[in-house]
Every structure is written in structure tokens, then in C-alpha cells.
Amino acid sequence: MPALTPQDIQVVRWGPPGPAGAGITASEKTAFDSRIAAIEGRVLSGAGSPEGAVVGDTGDLYGNTTGITGQTLWQKAGTSGTDGWSPIDGAVRAGIESHALATPNAATIQAFGMSAWTLAGTATNNDHFSGPAVAFATSGVLNNDAGPNGPAEFRRDWGVDATFRVITGSDLTNARIWVALADGDPSPNNAPGTINLAGFRYEAGVLAGNWGCRGADGAAGSEADSGVAVAASAAYRLRLLLSGSAVRFYVNDTLVVQRTTNLPTSSAYLRPWVRVRNIGTAGVRSVEFAHFNAWHT
User: Could you tell me the pTM of the whole model?
Assistant: First the structure.
């Protein structure tokens, strides 16, 4: 098998070896192991690289010899340690996938690899040319919240890599939006510190209308300016990369902030949250949810 180049990307899903199509065969698995072994030392064992903590080191990169049904290995060759756990920037990893997707032509959310989501506010289908979406609207009552949240099934010490795709509402005045992983609902507060949280916040008139990147450790919190302005009726890919010593914040695939203080407690069970609240004056505010994708060990 040829050695992988820094441009190679492999995404493989497999089950127990067998001839009936349940997954790759034993010989195919052996061949794949030998192929990715070509980059094992270069990507996993470089100085300061944390990726080795999330893969097996006994014989193959999965930590087993037979396979796990539904397990996904995804990797990209690159420079070791350039971006911690990130598959976009050089990590090799085997782990667990979780996905939540707006149901096409419906006002519901489908969950895969995780428990069901809870919906707050008025939900309506709002599919776009770019894909399905569910719009969530508050009532006209002041300080009313709307949006979906997932189950408390993610932890920082699991090396969670989570991406939300959301679309802002048409009216951002007197609106607060949270897109976060947290062990409590962040929407009632503009600066929650007594919950464990890593997330993005928009609030009219704050940080010049940019996405804020906030961390909270259950006792205190702090926030950094992403430098990315929030526009009305705009789609955003908001990514949180949690590791043992840092949380990285990405907007539309660009790293904007790295935090090393006020990180969520490593063993806290975090939920994905997307919330909009009408603040300041009464009125309907909205946010749309397209999908949530997460990988962890």
C-alpha cells in the first residue's frame, strides 16, 4: 500500500470482519491498517501531540483486532500537534459519532448516536435550497426562549469535536443567541458563570455585534471576541473543539479563539444548546437549526 500524503483524507466505517457485507473483511482491515500505519509515527507520536491518547497503541489504531460495529475512523495526514484533536488540521482518531439533523419537510429533529432532543418555543419547517432546517420562534412575551437542546452526553475529557449549523433570524435587535455545550440552560444569562459551558453568544450591542466565545467552569466565566460580525438571516458553522487543556472556537471553519481558562469541568456532562431569547423589549425573535455533528472518544 502506498504511504499517505499530507493531502490524503480517509473516512472508513466498518463492522466485524466478515464476508457478508457487514463490514470490511479481515484481509481488507489488515491492508487498511498497514496503509495508515505509514503515518502513525508522523501524526501520533510527535512531541506534544495529544492525539495518541484517543487511539489504541497495541497492534492497530483501533485498540482491538476484530472491529466494533458502527465505529468510525477518520483521519487526515498532516503535521503532528498543529491543532490538537482536529481532523481538519492533522489528527488521526477512532471514536463515537453523534448527529442531530433537521427532518426534511417537518418541524422535528432526528437524532443518531445520541438520545432525543428537546424543542422549546414554536417550531416550523423552513427548508432552504442548501438543506433542511427547523425555525424556532419565541413568543412575543419579554424574556421568552426558543430553540432545541440535546442530551447531556458529552464531556471535555472525551475530546469532543462538535459543530453546529445554525441560521440567524431576520431581526437581531433585542436578541440573544446561544450556541453552546453546557450542563445548564445558558439563555437566561448574558454571562453565565455557575454552569459548565463552552459556547458562542450573540447579543445586540455587545462586542460590536460579533460572536462572543465564552467559557465557564461552574464557578466563574469569561468571554473573548471572535472578531466575526453576526448578520441577520445568515448561516454559520460554529465549531467547538474540547481537549484536556484548551477549547478552540471556529466560525465557518476558521479558528477565531483558543481558551485555556474557565474551561468546563472535564467530567461535567454537557448538552448541546441552540437558544434565542427576546431581551430588552417584547417581540418575536427566531433562530434556525440545521444540524449538529459531534465526535468523541
Answer: 0.72
